[in-house]
Design a protein that fits this description.
Layout: H1 15-27, H2 31-47, H3 50-63, H4 71-80, H5 86-99, H6 106-118, H7 123-136, E1 143-144, H8 157-171, H9 176-180, E2 193-194, E3 196-200, E4 210-216, E5 229-236, E6 239-240, E7 245-249, E8 254-256, E9 263-269
Parallel strand pairs: 3-9
Antiparallel strand pairs: 1-2, 3-6, 4-5, 4-7, 8-9
Length: 279
């Protein structure tokens, strides 16, 4: 009898799989490039070998970390969670956790709940689902994993390094995380930072001021002083900023020492402020 053809064993850490992450790292800096790259990833998923297919959902996650507003990315990764290759499914589940990390996104949370019942009899995959659920509800929705400061203007190298390490670890999820090295997940701590906007005075004491929080508008190249936010609501600091939102001071009493209102912002008194003269 002819010997049975052995199933080909693919390497877990393949150079092409790592190169797949490189595409996301180059494109994650701006919106248009990220959209075009998502299409490239779909071609890779369709035509490439298993090591590359396993890294595609993680590459897609790098394009929009903690930014689940793009339904195309979430829908694409959700389809990959039911792939016949279990390694692809695990990568896609971890990718869902990264895309919605710290946002409490209801759509992703519902998707992960259905995956938990679907993979109830697969302990390894179920662990990945629980991990993703933990990432989605990280710090009850008060932190972000995104390596970008507002408007993709500045990148945090430490946060990006933590995410790159995480996606490499996820390529061998069964051997590392389900083996003896589950503590490697702690690398993600380096990418976590609060989403709060906190205002302080010049003596670094908390200061409550009114700010307008709304959807950010791209004003690059526009003449004059166009509005930088739209559909805003007025709040008192401290306030939470979601991905794609921007804040601006609603009063002329204080001046910000930074051009971006994010994180901890120091305010100083406006010397030209006259106060309420209506009385």
């Amino acid at each position: 009898a002819a010997p049975a053809t052995a199933k080909k064993e693919w390497p877990l850490l393949d150079k092409q799989a790592v190169a797949t992450f490189g595409i996301a790292m180059v494109a994650m800096g701006e919106e248009l490039g990220a959209d075009m790259t998502a299409r490239t990833y779909l071609h890779l998923f369709q035509y490439c070998e298993p090591p590359v297919r396993r890294s595609v959902p993680l590459g897609l996650a790098l394009l929009s970390v903690s930014s689940p507003m793009k339904n195309t990315v979430i829908d694409t990764i959700s389809k990959m969670t039911h792939d016949t290759d279990q390694d692809v499914a695990i990568s896609a589940i971890v990718a869902l956790g990264l895309v919605a990390g710290g946002t409490n996104n209801a759509k992703v949370a519902a998707s992960l709940r259905s995956l938990a019942s679907y993979y109830a009899k697969e302990p390894g995959v179920l662990f990945a689902v629980r991990l993703a659920q933990g990432l989605v509800h990280a710090a009850k929705g008060l932190v972000t994993l995104s390596p970008h400061h507002p408007d993709r203007s500045l990148l945090q190298p430490v946060a990006l390094a933590a995410l790159i390490a995480m996606v490499h670890i996820s390529l061998d999820f069964k051997g590392l995380i389900l083996g003896k090295y589950h503590f490697l997940l702690y690398v993600l701590v380096a990418a976590m930072r609060p989403r709060m906007l906190v205002t302080l005075d010049e003596d670094l004491k908390p200061l409550q001021v009114t700010v307008r929080v709304g959807t950010a508008v791209d004003t690059v190249g526009q003449a004059g002083q166009p509005k930088t936010i739209t559909g805003f609501q007025t709040h008192k600091t401290p306030v939470l900023l979601a991905m794609g939102e921007r804040a601006e001071l609603a009063t002329d009493e204080y001046l910000s020492l930074t051009s971006f209102m994010e994180g901890i912002v120091i305010l100083k008194k406006n010397p030209e402020y006259q106060g309420d003269t209506s009385n």
